[in-house]
Amino acid sequence: MKKTIIVLSILFSSFMLVSFVIEIKNGDINSWTKGGGRVMMSALPLALLFLQRTPFRVAHILGYYALLVCTFILGAIFHFYDTYKWWDVTLHVVGSMYVAWLGLAIYRYKVLRPSGIEISRWIIFLFVLGIAALGSAIWECIEFIGDMTVTSVMQRSGNKDTMTDLIAGLIGGVIIGILALFRNKPLEGKRI
């Protein structure tokens, strides 16, 4: 797993660094913060290497980079956000599903293993939904701060865009929550 994280982080960070340099050469004055953020986001999984044990598997890391490709490369660099109106909402649903999936991994690692007791599936549903909603709210805060400081295109239509994105995030959380509710019986611990 460590080799996978290192290779993906180096490849993606290098690509983001090259695109960052190209944007600066083309005279994009906002590229310092946008490009720097992209490079930092692509190197974020390297921070996992400092943890001795991590709840995330290779599939989680691959999912993370797939989201980065859809957001940074397809969405921003190849202008999918401008070309396809549904792209933003779809990424909010899928991104929220991803965050909820990470929430399940954390739940398994931090709650089930230490406690070893049976926990209601409805608690699991609420936990997953809460993690997805929190992720959506944090992302909307990032978009707002980005629009106030760097660019003005992240929240294109203001409140309508924000509320649409938050609803899309809740839908993604509900989808994974329902899957966790009915499909993942091993999420429940053992009776004592």
Report on this model:
This protein has 192 residues and is mostly helical. Helices cover 74% and strands 0% of the residues. The protein is built from seven helices and no strands. The protein is globular. This is Membrane-spanning protein.
Give me some keywords for this one:
192 residues, mainly alpha, globular, transmembrane, membrane, Membrane-spanning protein, transmembrane helix
End-to-end Cα distance, whole Å, is 34 Å
Uncertain parts: none
Radius of gyration: 18 Å
Q: Please indicate the percent range of residues in DSSP E strands (runs of 2 or more).
A: under 5%
Instruction: Name the average pLDDT.
Output: 82
Which helices and strands appear, and what pairs or packs with what?
Layout: H1 2-25, H2 31-43, H3 58-77, H4 80-83, H5 87-115, H6 121-149, H7 159-182
Helix pairs in contact: 1-2, 1-3, 3-5, 5-6, 5-7, 6-7
Short précis:
The chain is mostly helical and 192 residues long. It is 74% helix and 0% strand.
